[in-house]
Amino acid sequence: MNLHEVRVHRSDENLAREDQLAYKIAEVAADPVEVTEEVTEMVINRLIDNAAVATASIARAPAIAARAQALDHPYSPGSTVFGVDGRFGPEWAAWANGVAVRELDYHDTFLAAEYSHPGDNIPPILAVAQHVGRSGADLVRGIATGYEVQVDLVKAISLHKHKIDHVAHLGPSAAAGIGTLLGLDVETIFQAIGQALHTTTATRQSRKGEISTWKAYAPAFAGKMAVEAVDRAMRGQTSPTPIYEGEDGVIAWLLDGPDARYEVPLPAAGEAKRGILDTYTKEHSAEYQAQAWIDLARKLHHEHPELVDPANIGSVTIHTSHHTHFVIGSGANDPQKYDPTASRETLDHSIPYIFTVALQDGRWHHVDSYAPERAGRPDTVELWNKVHTLEDPEWTRRYHSNDPAEKAFGGRVEIVLADGTTIVDEIAVADAHPLGARPFARADYVQKFVTLAEGVVEQAEIDRFLELVQRLPELRADELGGLTVTARPGLLESFPTPKGLF
């Protein structure tokens, strides 16, 4: 990897285009390096993963609304939309599928200086691939680039520190991935990356307080903007330059300011794009920092059945990283994180709630664990209010470690019982993490899809999709349209379709 130094430049310094971060990213995207077999296999896993969570959410309100918008934009050749037959504008297919993928907070993640869900790159890249008639091998190359660029940006540049939403790294990565897919030249990809970044910077209020349905839309919007940015760049339209380093650019005014310095790792020319191998998916439908805590609570449920009853517990203190404490823990100072009437989006960003329910139930379910009647159970509310988080500097250090063997997303829990005795346990990574107790492999991705698709699509459709996606590198352009699923007859018709402007 090459380390590219990024800082703010005054306009009179005339930073050469070739030295700008957006240009360096474009060079990576345009590099025709082959994709390794290991990366190809992981791309297939993540396509299965995305299809699983998109299928599970196609009857949920945000996905219904986004799909309704796409259905009002039919197009030929166009792209597919999860749940329905037909072809639609690629930007609208990217939008609808992006919402479906993101709605349940249940697909892959990468955490470093910033947070991300790199699987959000797949909907826009796949939509464009279907629309323009690219092959499965082309799609693999585009997705490998999208993951690589997002992972590299996330390793180097923190957005959340300045309350900028993480999708500001997604717009550029998706544009770069589409550039690779289409075999565009460096200059065109450069212009698309600049436009994609410029249009996808937004505040983190979408993930604060009462979290709304926009949480699912934010990455879909970035993907849609990436598709449109590439379209404009291909038509010869240019972007603000330098978009990152300019004295009125993103870094100077939205991030670390005029004195900022970053070192962004990017593959050297001819170096394979392996970023996807640094990412990890979710076994449970909840914020990634909650994954390990669900596993630990599940373990404690079986080892200490007395913990189910709040009368037996005096207090529960979760010692964890800065992010877990301040973003999804009691350190956020969001009263909604203890509100039994809070939205599902809020509850899946409340580690006190998640730990409580997993401790009482010994499991986690993407629907049942968030049901209003589950959140409002009196014994749950009583125990929930006894759970608090604290930042532990050691767990924060491990969270930010660049050593994969040391990097951790868990912590230590201390449960003080009513009789004064204490139960202490800890967990570093989720069971499904590559270094966890049960790392996810192909069979787990397949099982996740089969489980979430049950009752939503027919068995023949499940079998068809799984057979097709596992042949991804050899798929012809005319087969790529099959990388979607159609809901079982009558399912979607039973839900009202909201009407808007279109």
TrEMBL record:
Name of this protein: MmgE/PrpD family protein
Transmembrane portions of the chain: none
Domain MmgE/PrpD C-terminal, chain residue ranges per copy: 284-472
A Pfam family assignment: MmgE_PrpD_N
Family: Belongs to the PrpD family.
InterPro entries in UniProt: MmgE/PrpD_sf, MmgE/PrpD_sf_1, MmgE/PrpD_sf_2, MmgE_PrpD, MmgE_PrpD_C, MmgE_PrpD_N
Listed SUPFAM superfamilies: 2-methylcitrate dehydratase PrpD
Species this chain originates from: Herbiconiux daphne
Domain MmgE/PrpD N-terminal per the UniProt entry, residue ranges: 20-262
